[in-house]
Amino acid sequence: MIVFWVAAGVLSAAVAGLILSRAARAASANEASDPTPILYRRQLAEIDELAERGLMGEAERKSAHAEAGRRLLAATDAPAQAWTADPKARRGVLIAAIAAPVLALVVYLKLGSPGMADQPFAARLKSWQTSSPTELQPPELAAVLKKLIAERAPDPEGYRLLAIAENASQNAPETIRALRHALKLAPQRADLWEMLGEAQVTEADGKLSDDAKAAFAEAVKRDPKSVLARFYLARARIDAGDKAGGLADWRALMAELPADDPRRPAIAQQIAEHEGRAEPAPAPGGGQMDMIRGMVEGLAQRLKANPDNPEGWVKLVHAYAVLGETGKRDAALKNARARYLAKPDVLRDLDAAAKAEPMK
After folding, report:
1. N or C: which end of the chain has fewer CB within 10 A?
2. Do the beta carbons of residue 105 and residue 2 sit within 8 Å?
3. Superfamily the domain 118-224 falls into
4. Regarding predicted confidence, which is higher, 165 or 24?
5. What Å distances lie between residue 328 and 113, 316, 335, CA to CA?
6. Residue 278: which residues within 8 A CB-CB, separation 6 or more?
7. What pLDDT, on the 0 to 100 scale, is given for residue 360?
8. Which DSSP helix (H) or strand (E) runs through 249?
9. Domain boundaries, the chain
10. CA distance 230 to 322
11. Who contacts 271 (Cβ-Cβ below 8 Å, separation ≥6)?
């Protein structure tokens, strides 16, 4: 690194010396310092050339010709000024050119890290692979998962985990890409279609794109009881102008949910809002956030009744992490880790889900 700085200083001094020598040569020639007469003569020639090629009308040519001629006469009548050379000024420029890289080198040696080795991506990736997933940032975890997927046989679960990591990295396009790979391998999985629809809604800043509606439709086709997909599809009907149909779908969804299901208040609030009725919000954050929180609590209740569900625990930990509920995330993670202590793959998935960053 020091060699680099020395070379940079020498080159800077050489360039400064070259510029100053050329300036001194021009000054010794005692040429006029004002190049405008040459410029306006060239401009007159260009005007005539444009007129000859038919790119300028006769009136425009006369007007431009007159203006350039007027400026040429003014520049010609102006007294010529010879260049003056000041050796002291040239020495100051040369000293400044040498001092700048020297000063930068001194600052770097004092504040920088000249002994630190380069860290190419391959070396960093190797280090991440040997680290615990809990110690990695979401982009780092995504890079590790991509490497593992490339080395192993195609696996929809691997792509699902990659999608979770990319989503935590707030990289919606890569999340969607990972889920599409997963669905090529397991098109029958409704949960993957749901995740794809959610990722496409995120990419569209909360709007229901045609791709998102298609993904939710595929989820319902494979799991007719998919609450999230049915909720969004009902909203899509309302957005398309079929308010009565969308509200009917929401009411049907409400009728199928148990009376104590935590998602019911959020759906009821959405129905009331679209009917123009006043309905107290069940919790701050808006109907859609309440819907999401309700679904997360519903998952937690199902796991309490049927805890032998590693995939469900991974989803729950990830959901709490994304919602920013660190207390619930840590409790769910502790419970799940104790349950699957003998299954390193599940532990890895749980740790990766816990690293998801809260949504903003």
Report:
1. C
2. yes
3. Tetratricopeptide repeat domain (1.25.40.10)
4. 165
5. 42, 9, 11
6. 272
7. 56
8. helix 243-256
9. 2-111, 118-224
10. 22
11. 247, 250, 251, 254, 279
